[in-house]
Amino acid sequence: MQSEKELFNLIKETYPQNPSHDFIASTEKILRQKARSMDKKSKAKKLTAISSGIILFALAFSWLFFFSGKEAVTNVASSFGAESLPAAVHENEPLVFIYHSHNIESYMPELDGNQVFSETKNVTLVGEEFSKALAENKINAIHDETDISGILEERNLSFADAYTVSREVLQQTLNEHKNVKMVFDIHRDLSKRAKSTINIDGFDYAKILFEVSKTTDNYEANKAFALEIHQKLEEHYPGLSKGVIDKGVNPKNTYNQDLKDNSVVVNIGGIENTFEEAYRSADALAEIIEDMIEEH
User: Fold this and answer.
1) Strands 141-143, 96-99: parallel, antiparallel or unpaired by DSSP?
2) Position 3 pLDDT exceeds 90
3) pTM score, two decimals?
4) Which residues does 207 contact at the CB level (< 8 Å), separation at least 6?
5) Residue 187, by phi and psi: left (phi above 0), alpha (psi -120 to 50) or beta?
6) 167 torsion bin: left (phi>0), alpha (psi -120 to 50), beta (else)
């Protein structure tokens, strides 16, 4: 019987392999995600060992794709004990909807003077980064950039009516995309830098705060969803999440969370953070969402 080494040599001799950079990168990403669950003290050493086998792993998988197709790859992955990604991750329909009820909220260091609002350099850029990070993790998302503030002005409405207008956007999206499973309304809060920033491994991140409305029938589902994200952030980025808070019982404002389970308001940073810090946090959040989708 041929040894494993002899089999791999036979594979290489049978068909010269030149896996694409994207294939190798995506394979490496999957392995690195598995490695995140390792103990921190031995993580670096083990990750190095894992990385050294990536090319060989990619060669074998590339050969299987060429000769046997996706079904063979799935079977081999199972033999390695790896869980296949849920089908929903690969569907064309979006799983995540991102929008901004207060779209002009911004960060002082990015603006002139002491301004905290901007029509162009605002929190929608953080939503865009979050959407891109999800896409890199093979998760389809819609990032809505509707100018809610502009609509309020056109309709002669007050700032307090922002959620009424954004509700129209959310409802239309949910009607058109039945596969949406998670809804994030991204803001920034008013906290100062000392309370809105954390340094992790030498890099500054904008802290994340989750808000859940108590005035919805699906409050428990939304609260559990937010708590799960918080707990996973604590595992991988300790201190990045400021936790989950309940918003009051004002029946006039459910923050639109009554329209869909797994809906949450996400505050990324405060008025004294930078886009760079907020982007890092958005990337971290995307990693956590990918983990949750894999698990569920």
Assistant:
1) parallel
2) no
3) 0.71
4) 191, 195, 196, 197, 198, 239, 240, 241, 242, 269, 270, 281
5) beta
6) alpha
Q: Which of 79, 99, 132 is the last residue of a domain?
A: 79
- Please tell me whether residue 178 adopts helix, strand or coil conformation: coil
- For position 86, what pLDDT does the model report? 41
Q: Return the SS3 of 269.
A: coil
46 and 111, same domain (yes or no):
no
Is residue 92 located within the same domain as residue 70? no
User: Would you call 7 helix, strand, or coil by DSSP?
Assistant: helix
Residues 191 and 124 in one domain: yes
In 3D space, the residue among 143, 147, 148 whose CA is nearest the CA of residue 161 turns out to be 148
Closest CA to 137 of 5, 262, 289, 255: 289
Specify the 3-state DSSP secondary structure of 44. Answer: helix
Q: Pick the last residue of a domain from 29, 55, 79.
A: 79
56: domain range?
A: 4-79
For residue range 78-103, what is the model confidence (pLDDT) as tens digits?
333 333 334 444 457 899 999 999 99
Identity at 175, one-letter amino acid code: N
Tokens of 72: 């063979």
pLDDT, mean of residues 124-144? 97
How far is residue 129's CA from residue 131's CA, in Å, rounded to a whole number? 5
CA distances (Å), 144 to each of 96, 126, 288, in order?
A: 11, 12, 21
Instruction: State how beta strands 263-268 and 208-213 pair.
Output: antiparallel
Does 125 lie in the same domain as 98? yes
